[in-house]
Every structure is written in C-alpha cells, then in structure tokens.
Fold:
Amino acid sequence: MQEIAGNIGGTAKEHARFRNELILAKDNGCKLYILVENRDGIKALNDVALWKNPRARDNPKAIQGPRLFKAMCTMQERYGVTFLFCKPEDAAEIITMILEGRYGV
Structure:
C-alpha cells in the first residue's frame, strides 16, 4: 500500500510519472492491471477508502485512504487501469489467472 500511495499521492513528480505510464499504456491499446500486494487487509478497491496510512503519524500531508481511493477510481475511469489487491503469497496465482484469462476482471 505504501508503494501505490507514493506513486499516486507522493510528490507531483511521482504522480505525473505514474499517470504518464497509465496514459502511455492506454494510448498503445494495453489493458493494464496493477496488482497491489499487501498485508493491510485490502482485498478490493473499496477497502482502500478505509486504509490508514501509517506514515501520516509523522507526516500529516501523507495521503490517506479516502483520497487515495478517489484518485484510484479516477485513474480507472480515465485510463482503463484495473487495480487488484492480494496477499503477497497469492500474487503468482492471480498473475497466472490473469494471463490465462481465468480471472474475473
């Protein structure tokens, strides 16, 4: 969760780089899936809205769940990216299912 939070809600430069990658994928006709491995109990995009960023204790400007959720929803709508969530030990199986067309997305 920290990595995706940094990519989307970090510095303006980080956000722009991430957004530009999404635009590039869309412009080239690629369907992009971003699999977010986590141990925070996030299983679906809606769960992100409830996420509490542990970095917010030291940095009050750190992105929190509701804002991250809204940004991710906007990116899904604008750029066609799909955000998926899983525990690290389940990532390989989910990737295989996506590649084989067996994942319900």
User: Anything to note?
Assistant: Strands lie at 33-37, 82-86.
